[in-house]
Amino acid sequence: MTAEGRRRRETVRRQAAELFERRIKPLEVARQLRVSRKSAYQWHRLWREGGVEALASGGPGGSRCRLSPRCLEKLAGYLEQGPAAHGWVEDQVWTAARVATLIGRKFHVSYSVSGATRLMHRLGFSPQVPARRVAERDDQAVKVWREATWAEVKERGRPAGVTSASRTKPASRAGRQGDGPGAGAE
Q1: Inter-residue contact 52 to 22 (CB < 8 Å)
Q2: Helices 69-81 and 113-122, axial angle in degrees (round to 10)
Q3: Which residue of 32, 97, 105, 177 shows the fewest CB atoms closer than 10 Å?
């Protein structure tokens, strides 16, 4: 959630507390503040138990980061060194799976691929998807094949003209007069 969204939520909760203090019912609070009834009832319960302070935000949601700030700094340094420095020599691409593996090796903490992606974004990096190419690929031979052979092999498209939108044979009108809706109801 953005800082703007958090400020808006805090404002709405403060307004709800003011309305509760004026003995406004939760349903009316929900209507006035344009929030769900469930939220209004939860806020009312919290307000009854702890007052205005109980409605204060507990900070951003979600689970806390499992790496300390010092470990995050180290991880950023490892990422800047590049994948080859950590054993991935086939290409210079940090994938989320590789970062999750690196975190496990260096910090003995398990991260999912999606968790590693979020962590990379937090550190200012983005995961990349490596191109899947065979090591023996001959780019020159591929170019020649595309220019010479593919032009000959490629199937010609349909000729311009009247075509049907479906793969079925276009229907003929001959002999169809009696089999439509309402046929025989004379």
Answers
A1: no
A2: 90
A3: 177
Residue 128: per-residue pLDDT? 76
Provide the whole-model pTM.
0.45
What count of other Cβ atoms lies within 10 Å of the Cβ of residue 148?
A: 10
**Exposure string (b/e) for 94-133, b if CB count within 10 Å is 16 or more?**
bbbebbbbbbeeebeeebeeebbbebbeeeebebeeeeee
- Cβ atoms of residues 91 and 130 within 8 Å: yes
Contact present, 66 and 111 (Cβ < 8 Å):
yes
Cα dihedral 7, 8, 11, 17 in deg (nearest 10): -120
What percent of the chain has pLDDT above 90?
42
Rounded CA-CA distance 108/102 in Å is 9
- Tracing tokens 């900070």 back to the chain, one arrives at 59
pLDDT given for residue 26 in this prediction: 94
Mean pLDDT for all residues in the chain: 82
| pLDDT over 70 percentage in the chain | 75
In terms of DSSP H, where are the helices of 35-182? 37-50, 69-81, 96-107, 113-122, 139-145, 151-153
d(CA 63, CA 117) in angstroms, rounded, equals 15
